[in-house]
Amino acid sequence: MNTVGTSKHVNKTGKTILVTGGSGYIGSHTVVNLLEKGFRVISLDNYDNSHKWINNRILEIAGNEAKVHFHDVDICEKQKLRKIFEKYPEISGIIHFAAHKAVGESVENPLKYYDNNLNGLISILQMAAKFQVPNFIFSSSCTVYGNVDKLPVTESTPLQTAESPYGATKVMGERIVTDFVHATPIAKAVLLRYFNPAGAHSSALIGELPQNKPANLVPVITAVASGKMDCLTVFGTDYDTRDGSCVRDYIHVSDLAEAHTLAMQALLNGKLNRVEVFNLGIGQGATVLEAIKAFEKVSGKKLNYALGQRRKGDVVAIYADYQKAQKVLGWSPIFNMEDIMRTAWEWEKQLDNDNYFTSGRQ
């Protein structure tokens, strides 16, 4: 698929950014944010865990004349990827989202994660080197910290052994990017360690919608509330936390998208060291049971959930200190937990009568 147009927004930069996984959850929100800030975008996705019709929604939000090109490409297929870079020699930066991301699935099928996540990253970095694209943003994760001894987590918190193969791919991914930059004179990179992305665009036109059964907490909550799933299981109620359930830092996906644009702008303006690391969270932890209560408050619905055993690969508690991103990038989150639940619920409700809805979510 290839859709082309021009932006309704003033193009302040004229720079072209390649986004891998651009039709996915975080990728689609970031593409919208980039377009709204005047960037041109080349979006790549193989639709393994996303939907082509999301591209139409991106255009609907950003304007049907948005300066974006969508391509159906698996970045592990190097010949197809090479053709993209040959077609668009003007690419100034890369934001790399394309990766498998379910912790539970990675425990059950580790080779799938090591194969896709690491080989995809190596492939895109090889093209960046060959075509001399200097600016690179890597989609990392708070899972690189493992079970931490001290909260909140700062960028200097020591990395520990990853609790899952997914987390291990992020630890190794950061190492690969860092080694690449040190060996490549023109290269600069930002490693963005997300905490728990959640919520949906305020338009309710894009949001989290995996191809398979949802695994992350918030889309499971909304799927249960809408009747698409029968029950939510709270994995573990005997952790050393306020109510026995895991603690996570839930960050709104639109705040996360804004951080990517700010990081790319900082790279392009030469304001960063060659490799920079930033935590992206709201700086507060919520337990799974507190997240459920927040949803029940904003939706007015009682959620059907059950208490279960701990799930292998989960850390006990983690939340961010985002002061570095605030100081260096000028970024601060503006959405809270209730905003996350409200926008996620609006997104879920419109899917019920959505003519584009082809997910087959069970």
Task: Write a structural description.
- The protein has about 350 residues and is of the alpha/beta class.
- It has one domain: Rossmann fold (3-Layer(aba) Sandwich), CATH 3.40.50.720.
- It has 11 helices and 13 strands.
- The strands form 4 sheets. Strands 3-2-1-4-5-6-11 form a 7-stranded parallel sheet, with helices on both faces. Strands 7-10 form a two-stranded parallel ribbon. It has a two-stranded parallel ribbon with strand order 8-13.
- Helix 5 runs parallel beside helix 6 (about 165-185).
- The chain is globular and about 55 Å long.
- Mean pLDDT is about 90; it is low at about 1-10 and about 355-360.
List keywords for this structure.
362 residues; alpha/beta; Rossmann fold; 7-stranded parallel sheet; two-stranded parallel ribbon; 11 helices; 13 strands; globular; disordered N terminus
- Supply the helix-strand structural class: alpha/beta
The Cα radius of gyration reads 19 Å
User: CATH topology, what is it called?
Assistant: Rossmann fold
Corresponding CATH superfamily? NAD(P)-binding Rossmann-like Domain
The CATH class? Alpha Beta
Instruction: Please report the distance between the alpha carbons of the first and last residues.
Output: 27 Å
Q: What ranges have pLDDT less than 50 throughout 5 or more consecutive residues?
A: 1-11, 353-362
> What does the main sheet amount to?
7 strands, parallel
Query: How much helix is in the residues?
Result: 25-40%
- Mean pLDDT, all residues: 91
Q: Beta-sheet strand percentage?
A: 15-25%
| Shape, per Cα inertia axes | globular
Order of helices and strands: EHEHEHEHHEHEEHEEEHEEHEHH
CATH architectural name:
3-Layer(aba) Sandwich
* Largest sheet: spatial strand order: 3-2-1-4-5-6-11
